[in-house]
Design a protein that fits this description.
Blueprint lengths: L2 H21 L5 H8 L3 H13 L3 E4 L7 E4 L11 H16 L5 H15 L2 H11 L14 H13 L1 E9 L2 E14 L4 E7 L4 E6 L4 E9 L8 H12 L3 E7 L3 H5 L7 E5 L5 E7 L2 H9 L5 E5 L2 H17 L12
Antiparallel strand pairs: 1-2, 3-4, 3-7, 4-5, 5-6, 8-10, 8-11, 9-10
Length: 331
C-alpha cells in the first residue's frame, strides 16, 4: 500500500483547499467538494487539518456548511513572524505601485492573500510604514494602497463596489461589479460591469474617490479579456478618432517603438502587424505611424486614405526647390 503517495495526495488537496479559501470570502461545503473532487465529509476533515496548522476557518450553519478563512490571532506556522509580515506587506505595497514590469500584478495578488490572514494588531503598523514607501522615475501614478486592496478584495470576493468618479465637471457615484485590476506602464485600471450603464467599463483607479466594497454578492458575467479591453480603451476608444494600420514589420519591433498606452499592436504573421490607435485628429495618428519608419497601409477609416494623399502632396511641396532667401545684410 502506497501510504507515502496517499499522504502526498492529501497534502496537495489541503493546499488546494487553502488556495480556494483565499480566493474569495466564502464557500459552501458542496462547492468545495465539487472543486476538489471529494465528498463534503472529506472537506470537513481537510478543514480540521488546516485548523490544526493554525488557520482560523469559520464554519457557517445550515445544509451547505459554508466556510470562510478569517484573520488569525497568530500568523499560520511556516509563514512569517510579526516583523517579517510587516516587511513583506510593505514591500508588496511598494511593488503594487512600482514600475517594474509584471511585478505590480503579482504583488497585488500576494497582498490580497496576506490580507486574509494578517492579524488585526499588525494592520496599523502596516499602514504607518506603507506611507514611508515612495518611488521615483517612470513609475505609475501614485494611488492609495488601501484603495487597491479594497478593489482587489471586491474582485476576489465577487461583491459589488462603489466609488465617486469624474463625469464632465461633476463627480458621480458609480455602482459596479468589479472583475479585474489591470496595470499599465503608467496607471492602474479597474475593469468592471457598470450597473447603471449596463455595460463593461474601464476606470482609472487614481481618479476614484470614496471607494467601498459592499456585501452584495453577484454572479460573474461572461467578461472580455481584461488586459486587452483596458488597453484598447486607453489607446483608442477614449479618443474621438480611431484608426487601424497594417504595418510591414514584426509585432515585437513595433511594440518596442510604441508605448502600450498609445496603441494596440497585434501580430499578423512573422513580418507584419496591425496597429490600432486613436487621437484627437486623424492626421496626428497618421504622422505617428509614419514616423515609425516602416511601410504601412491604412485599413480604416476609409477617409484616412484621402488624408494620406493630401499630406503626401504637402510634404512633396515642402521638399521642392524654393526661391533663395534674400540676404538681409545686402538690403
Amino acid at each position: 500500500m502506497d501510504t507515502a503517495g496517499d499522504e502526498r495526495g492529501t497534502t496537495e488537496r489541503v493546499l488546494t483547499l487553502l488556495g480556494l479559501l483565499q480566493q474569495r470570502e466564502g464557500w459552501t461545503g458542496p462547492e468545495l467538494a465539487d472543486r476538489l473532487g471529494v465528498t463534503p465529509r472529506t472537506v470537513r476533515r481537510d478543514v480540521e487539518r488546516l485548523r490544526m496548522l493554525g488557520y482560523r476557518i469559520h464554519a457557517g450553519q445550515g445544509v451547505g456548511g459554508g466556510y470562510r478563512l478569517g484573520p488569525g490571532q497568530d500568523l499560520p506556522p511556516l509563514l512569517l513572524d510579526d516583523e517579517e509580515a510587516i516587511a513583506t506587506v510593505v514591500s508588496l505595497l511598494a511593488g503594487a505601485g512600482g514600475g517594474v514590469a509584471g511585478a505590480g500584478d503579482a504583488a497585488l495578488r500576494a497582498l490580497t492573500k496576506l490580507d486574509q490572514v494578517l492579524p488585526a494588531r499588525l494592520r496599523h503598523e502596516v499602514r504607518a510604514l506603507s506611507g514611508s514607501v515612495e518611488s521615483f522615475g517612470g513609475g505609475r501614478t501614485p494611488i492609495d494602497p488601501e484603495v487597491l486592496t479594497t478593489l482587489a478584495r471586491a474582485c476576489r470576493d465577487e461583491v459589488e463596489a462603489g466609488f465617486g468618479y469624474p463625469s464632465g465637471s461633476q463627480v458621480r457615484r458609480r455602482r459596479v461589479e468589479p472583475y479585474r485590476l489591470v496595470a499599465s506602464d503608467r496607471r492602474w485600471y479597474l475593469l468592471a460591469y457598470d450597473l447603471d450603464r449596463d455595460d463593461w467599463r474601464s476606470f482609472r483607479v487614481d481618479r476614484m474617490s470614496d471607494v467601498s466594497a459592499r456585501t452584495w454578492r453577484f454572479r460573474p458575467r461572461a467578461a472580455p479579456d481584461a488586459a486587452t479591453y483596458v488597453q484598447e480603451s486607453v489607446a483608442s476608444r477614449v479618443y474621438p478618432h480611431q484608426a487601424r494600420f497594417l504595418v510591414q514589420a514584426p509585432a515585437d519591433t513595433v511594440r518596442a517603438q510604441i508605448p502600450a498606452s498609445a496603441a494596440v499592436v497585434r501580430r499578423r504573421g512573422d513580418e507584419r502587424c496591425e496597429v490600432l490607435s486613436g487621437a484627437g485628429s486623424l492626421d496626428f495618428v497618421l504622422m505617428h505611424v509614419l514616423l515609425l519608419g516602416h511601410a504601412f497601409e491604412v485599413v480604416e477609416p476609409p477617409e484616412l486614405r484621402g488624408r494620406c494623399r493630401v499630406l503626401a502632396e504637402r510634404l512633396l511641396s515642402a521638399g521642392a526647390a524654393v526661391s533663395p532667401v534674400p540676404d538681409l545684410a545686402e538690403s
